[in-house]
């Protein structure tokens, strides 16, 4: 699992905006990750700027763009980008070894439709993404903050999901997944109450894992042990 953002939230779940509000998690890079950062960052890296990105210029084409928050080590993100060359992909991760690993995997796989940020997800969404410009936003296995007193620290909160909605085009989808049942119920409660979204589930709750989300090794092991994973897909309808 990956910390999806270093943004801080108070006990009411309110995003705390402050000067230099986060510290990037540098971590210890392997030699391969360090080489990938040096060689591939100029090709696939996106330096944070408060100005909105010109996606067509960055990718050299007009195409639907998928953004993933907190891609961890990037294996599934690279797999998705390789499997859907017709889409543009942007990943955001604060953990530098994860960024290095993702760049190394993408280069080895010959992926050209992926760009990555080493930055805070909330700041990128609020400042670097044009409103209504994304086809899908993905949030897979975020920190569950499983202790009840910490639930307000979960990233899926009313204010955050409206930030996501603003970045999606009409008909665009916010796709969430978690392996914590309690967090899935929290996600469903927040998303069901959020204005401007429509649940794509025919049963009004969760959806089967869609083909575009790869089955991770962690998840496959969980299935064998009888652990559940819950996917939610909510469409921006207004």
From TrEMBL:
Positions binding S-adenosyl-L-methionine in this chain are: 68, 93, 120, 143
Enzyme class comes to transferase
Q: Tell me which UniProt keywords the record has, alphabetically.
A: Methyltransferase, S-adenosyl-L-methionine, Transferase, tRNA processing
* EC code: 2.1.1.33
PROSITE patterns in UniProt: SAM_MT_TRMB
Protein's name according to its UniProt entry? tRNA (guanine-N(7)-)-methyltransferase
Summarize the protein's role: Catalyzes the formation of N(7)-methylguanine at position 46 (m7G46) in tRNA.
In what pathway does it function?
tRNA modification; N(7)-methylguanine-tRNA biosynthesis
User: Which InterPro entries does this one have?
Assistant: SAM-dependent_MTases_sf, tRNA_(Gua-N-7)_MeTrfase_Trmb, tRNA_methyltr_TrmB_bact
| Pfam families cross-referenced by the UniProt entry | Methyltransf_4
Q: Which reaction does it catalyse?
A: guanosine(46) in tRNA + S-adenosyl-L-methionine = N(7)-methylguanosine(46) in tRNA + S-adenosyl-L-homocysteine
Record-annotated residues binding substrate?
Answer: 147, 179, 216-219
Q: What is the lineage of its organism?
A: Bacteria, Pseudomonadati, Pseudomonadota, Gammaproteobacteria, Alteromonadales
Check the record and name the NCBIfam families matching this protein.
Answer: tRNA (guanosine(46)-N7)-methyltransferase TrmB
Q: Which gene encodes it?
A: trmB
Similarity comment: family membership = Belongs to the class I-like SAM-binding methyltransferase superfamily. TrmB family.
